[in-house]
Amino acid sequence: MTRTFCPKCGNDVDALYGNVCRQCFIGDKKLLESPAVIHMRICPTCGSIYRRGKWQSRGEESEAIIESVRENLKINKQARDIGLTITPKQLDYSRYMVHVEAKANIEGIPIDAELDTEVRISWETCDTCSRIAGGYFEGIVQVRAEKRLPTQEELDRCRGIAEDIAVRAQEKGERLAFIAKVVKLDEGIDIYVGSSKLGKQICRAIVDTFGGKFSESPKLVGQKDGEDLYRITFAVRLPEFVRGDIISADDKVIEVQSSGKLVSGIDLETGRRFIENFNYILEIKKLGSRQDAVPAVLVAYEDTSILVLDPETYETVAVKRPEFLSAEPGDEIKVVKTAKGIYVLP
Fold first, then answer.
1. Per-residue model confidence (pLDDT) at position 122
2. Which long-range contacts (CB under 8 A, 24 or more apart) does 315-319 make?
3. How confident is the model at residue 334 (pLDDT cuts 50, 70, 90)?
4. Residue 26: pLDDT band by 50, 70, 90 thresholds?
5. Which of 28, 191, 246, 310 matches a 20 to 30 Å C-alpha distance to 214?
């Protein structure tokens, strides 16, 4: 075997790397470097971290520490097949000692290194939390109902929809996608939002769920850096009809089961399923509600009709026989008396 010597240290070696022996070659190489102290800014309220010139949401604190150290490491540009192990150890409320181990190869020669660095946390309130604390908002989503008061169930669902959309937007990095406050009023709720974009997203989601419509009214509130600043009021109007309402839809009398972009329910004359787009109904009017139902005695069956005792006059009247009716003569059934007549309820 041919042997040679290292011109730097004079030792006999099997091969040279960069004209020196393996030991001398590695000795001149620094696999990694890091500042002795790394500074971080973290919001004590929401846990966001200030990185690359802006506040960003983060997960676990230890993961943020590891990522910050990783970003500050300088690794030899010749290194290949790099493996890093970063282990943080908390010293106190605002300090971590982080141990870094690295393995790689340079020109085919295995090389490893390790170092320790300290991470110091500066606890600072982020821009979003500062705005929330200061009562900042860019828009108000006013949830109301058309020609009625919204139910508590509707308002709870609207609030849940708004909160879900805000969370999803924040997960996508939209820092102003927050709900500043929700104000309960006799006629509905007002949802104060951190951005007009979030306000519009909430309105669209509510209308997709319930139907109805919304409008926007911008108001100039000042200027910043030469640009006009607006605050937008979004007026959401839930549909007029809710589950249990008895309505006249063109020539049909319907008990509403759901009301959104489509109104669906039971045709009380035939007992069949009804579903139609609100925009395609020429004339629609509320006749009553299932809460108005009263018991009546079924007297007899007649072809497509039944005879019942009018619950007010006790006269025998003919009523359309719906498909769902299975009672026997003499039984009590639920009926509702409207301006268009008496109808049996399922």
1. 92
2. 317/342, 319/343, 319/344
3. very high
4. low
5. 246
DSSP 3-state of 197: helix
CB count in 10 Å sphere of residue 240: 18
- The domains of the chain are located at 25-123, 135-238, 245-344
pTM of the model: 0.63
165-180 in b/e form (b: 16+ CB < 10 A) is bbeebbeeebbbbbbb
- CA-only gyration radius of the chain, Å: 36
DSSP category for residue 283: -
What residue type is 70 in one-letter code?
R
**CATH architecture, domain 25-123:** Sandwich (2.60)
Whether 137 contacts 193, CB under 8 Å = yes
Q: Tell me how crowded residue 200 is: count the other CB atoms within 10 A of its CB.
A: 17
Select from 209, 210, 228, 207 the least CA-distant residue to 219.
228
Alpha carbon of residue 332 to chain centroid: 48
CA dihedral angle for residue 185, residue 187, residue 188, residue 189, rounded to 10 degrees = -30
Question: What is the mean predicted confidence (pLDDT) over 13-24?
Answer: 68
User: Residue 341 has which token pair?
Assistant: 């007549």
Q: How confident is the model at residue 225, as a pLDDT? A: 63
Report DSSP state, residue 17: B
Comparing C-alpha atoms, which of 138, 134, 177, 142 is closest to residue 159? 142
pLDDT tens digits, one per residue of 238-251? 988 888 899 988 88
Nearest to 43 by CA among 126, 128, 134: 126
pLDDT at 2: 63
What lies within 8 Å, CB to CB, of 38 at 6+ separation is 68, 69, 72, 117, 118, 119, 120
Mean pLDDT of 223-232: 72
Which helix (H) or strand (E) segment holds residue 267: the answer is strand 262-267
Provide the 10 A C-beta neighbour count for residue 226.
Answer: 5
Q: Strands 54-56, 179-185: parallel, antiparallel or unpaired by DSSP?
A: unpaired
